[in-house]
Write a structure and sequence with these properties.
Keywords: Membrane, Transmembrane, Transmembrane helix. It comes from Rhizobium quercicola. This is DUF2628 domain-containing protein. The protein is an alpha+beta fold. Helices cover about 55% and strands about 15% of the residues. It has five helices and three strands. It has a three-stranded antiparallel beta sheet with strand order 2-1-3. Strand 1 and strand 2 form a beta hairpin. Helix 3 packs antiparallel against helix 4. The longest helix has 24 residues. It is elongated, with a radius of gyration of 15 Å.
């Protein structure tokens, strides 16, 4: 189950919600959640890879790619937000849990 974490950009004050953990929406809908979050390249890439894997593996390939995608997408999305300058800005215990799950140190804290 994915866990939400609030991120804030110190320069603009803009707030976004990042997630970490297993993404059920990505499992069921493939690259569509990535497209809706603005990760167009990742979303389209996932859809193309899933279609190719599904074609080669007679449908089973899509399922396998979908499971892998569901495990990694939330971490990729939130890490990209941190790389874009956003900082973790939530309750201290939630920030610690997110740091541990995402593998980031104090550099990701507001």
């Amino acid at each position: 189950m994915a866990t939400a974490i609030r991120l804030q950009h110190p320069g603009t004050g803009m707030t976004k919600i990042g997630y970490y953990g297993f993404s059920w929406t990505s499992l069921f809908f493939g690259g569509i959640p990535a497209l809706l979050r603005g990760d167009v390249g990742l979303g389209l890439g996932m859809i193309v890879v899933g279609m190719i894997a599904g074609f080669i593996g007679v449908g089973l390939g899509w399922f396998i790619v979908g499971i892998i995608w569901a495990f990694i997408y939330n971490k990729i999305h939130t890490t990209r937000l941190l790389e874009a300058g956003y900082k973790l800005a939530d309750a201290p215990e939630r920030v610690r849990d997110a740091q541990r799950a995402l593998g980031v140190g104090d550099q990701g804290v507001l």
